[in-house]
Specification:
Blueprint: E1 7-10, E2 18-23, H1 26-35, E3 46-49, H2 53-62, E4 67-69
Parallel strand pairs: 1-4
Antiparallel strand pairs: 1-2, 2-3
Length: 70
């Protein structure tokens, strides 16, 4: 059974020190905006400091959401 990630984390965003996180479903979007208090841009991405990516991923995993780094 194939597993689909709830988030795509783009570490090499082209902006030094910034990663992009893209929610891949409504549950992930709700988690980002309601639990993690991240602002999702019109493009569908939220920005986080590269140093905070691991904290976000760990927190999302505690909420039973998974991430894929690309």
């Amino acid at each position: 059974m194939a597993m689909t990630a709830d988030f795509q984390v783009i570490v090499n965003s082209g902006i030094q020190g910034i990663a992009l996180i893209e929610p891949m479903n409504v549950e992930a979007l709700n988690y980002m905006t309601e639990e993690a208090n991240l602002h999702v841009m019109d493009s569908g991405y939220a920005t986080v400091k590269e140093n905070d990516v691991l904290d976000f991923v760990n927190s999302a995993e505690r909420a039973h959401l998974c991430s894929a780094a690309i």
